[in-house]
Specification:
Low-confidence stretches: 1-33
Strand content: 15-25%
Distance between the termini: 43 Å
Order of helices and strands: EEHEHEHEEHEHEHEHHEHHEEEHHH
Strand order of the largest sheet: 1-11-12-6-5-4-2-3
Oligomer: single chain
Structural class: alpha/beta
Shape: globular
Length: about 375
């Protein structure tokens, strides 16, 4: 069993649960705590829409999996907070009032939502933290190895520079300070970058919004000079898009290497044409489907299955020994698009290789 202290830093290790046969574990009624049948309601609270993954992948994949696990008798009550912490608190209260059986929560503000998590606990509703570890009495957590994400991004950035030197200036565009994942991405990246390059400017980007990243990047260009920026660490793809806009607005035609995360379609296309160096691909089907399995097993009292799905342990600032599952990540470059997002049916080749990107697709034999 592995422990990760989320309040400080996660151990940089990828965990492949499926390879151990964990995801096929089942709990019979003989081994289960008293639970409900298939007629259950699962609350799903996602944080925002600026990152296209939530509406495009997480929600529909999660919903389909819950239905398949419950013989289509289970339902998903869904709400998206659109980056508004107060709105999410209201949405969660509504689910508590509706007496859903379990809540799967991706928090806008991990600290601010703690009171709502406690209210759910008081109402007898388990809460599973999804993608971001919320504070409060969480029953379980599923996400990716977030510090490893930052390390993968930073290693890729250093690789893109060939032989980086300490005088090479880079800009760090980190995520929102209210997101505990952003702190871990940043910590992982810094563990690789410190002492190897100069971090000329570093920003914590409010609400992860691309337009805020664009404004930050414009400020960095004015302060450093566009020609002196050797690379840009961007914590996700949405912000990478804003960074590209700022650089182009400053007249930069030969863009420096830019990292990302989430494998957004626009980012995959930017990678193809050389406007973005890489992204971190995280298997949303694995995360969403395993979260659905955890939620259903929790409600139905299938203790063996739930324990098999949550063999890790994490600590938040408020809660210790939270059962957890960490899903592996992959560095996505133009060389492995077919083996990642296409192979996992995230995108069809036709989605990626539109007329504008046909030549770039041909160059990497993406057909």
């Amino acid at each position: 069993m592995r422990r990760i202290a989320i309040s400080v830093a996660a151990t940089s290790m990828s965990v492949m649960l499926a390879g151990c046969g964990v995801l096929n574990a089942t709990g019979s009624s003989d081994d289960a705590s008293p639970g409900k049948g298939d007629d259950i309601t699962v609350g799903l609270l996602l944080p925002e829409k600026a990152n296209t993954r939530y509406e495009q992948f997480d929600y529909p994949i999660f919903k389909t999996k819950v239905e398949s696990l419950t013989d289509k008798k289970g339902t998903v009550e869904y709400a998206n907070a659109e980056a508004d912490a107060d709105k999410q608190a209201s949405q969660m209260q509504e689910m508590i009032d509706d007496r859903v059986d379990v809540i799967v929560l991706d928090a806008v503000d991990a600290h601010a939502i703690a009171g709502s998590v406690q209210k759910a606990k008081d109402a007898g509703i388990p809460v599973i933290a999804y993608d971001r570890l919320a504070e409060g009495p969480i029953d379980a957590y599923i996400s990716f190895d977030n510090e490893l994400v930052g390390e993968v991004q930073a290693r890729s950035l250093l690789e893109s520079l060939g032989e980086p030197g300490i005088t090479d200036k880079i800009v760090m565009m980190n995520g929102a300070s209210t997101d505990p994942n952003a702190k871990q991405f940043k910590a992982g990246a810094l563990s690789e970058l410190k002492g190897k390059v100069t971090i000329a400017k570093s920003y914590d980007t409010k609400d992860w919004k691309p337009e805020n990243a664009q404004a930050n990047m414009a400020e960095a260009i004015n302060a450093i000079g566009a020609g002196d920026i050797k690379a840009v660490y961007s914590a996700n793809d949405g912000m990478a898009g804003g960074i590209v806009k700022a650089l182009k607005a400053a007249g930069v035609t030969d863009l420096p290497p830019i990292t990302g995360q989430d494998a957004d379609l626009a980012a995959v296309q930017r990678i193809l044409v050389g406007e973005q160096y890489m992204s971190v691909y995280k298997s949303y089907p694995d995360e969403a489907e395993n979260a659905a399995e955890m939620a259903v097993a929790k409600v139905q009292g299938k203790d063996i299955q739930f324990d098999a799905l949550t063999r890790e342990r994490v600590d938040s600032p408020t809660t210790k020994d939270i059962p957890a599952q960490l899903v592996p990540v992959v560095a996505l470059t133009k060389d492995n698009i077919e083996d990642t997002v296409v192979a996992d049916s995230i995108y069809d080749v036709s989605d990626i290789c539109t007329a504008e990107f046909a030549a770039a697709c041909e160059a990497v034999k993406l057909k």
